[in-house]
Amino acid sequence: MVVCICNAIRENQVRDAARAGSFEPKCAYRRLGCQVKCGQCIPFAREIIASEHATA
Fold it and tell me: Strand, helix or coil at 3?
């Protein structure tokens, strides 16, 4: 599933970034070589990151 249309970031990429230590969407996006643009994806990215850290 696509999380960020602006950067074409997929859910599995956000999950991988969270597993690698990112706790915020901005950090995850930086890890992926991108930056937040319009910001509409932030709430969904936060949910994904939180779920990854909850199961870790």
Answer: strand
Whether the predicted model's global pTM rises above the 0.90 cut: yes
Beta bridge partners of 2: 10
For residue 35 the two structure tokens come to 């930056």
The C-alpha atoms of residue 41 and residue 38 are separated, in whole angstroms, by 8
Q: Give the homologous superfamily in CATH for domain 2-55.
A: BFD-like [2Fe-2S]-binding domain (1.10.10.1100)
Tell whether the torsion through CA atoms of 51, 28, 11 and 18 is positive or negative: negative
Spell out the domain ranges in the chain.
Answer: 2-55
Query: How does pLDDT run across 6-42, given as a tens digit for each residue?
Result: 999 999 999 999 999 999 999 999 999 999 999 999 9
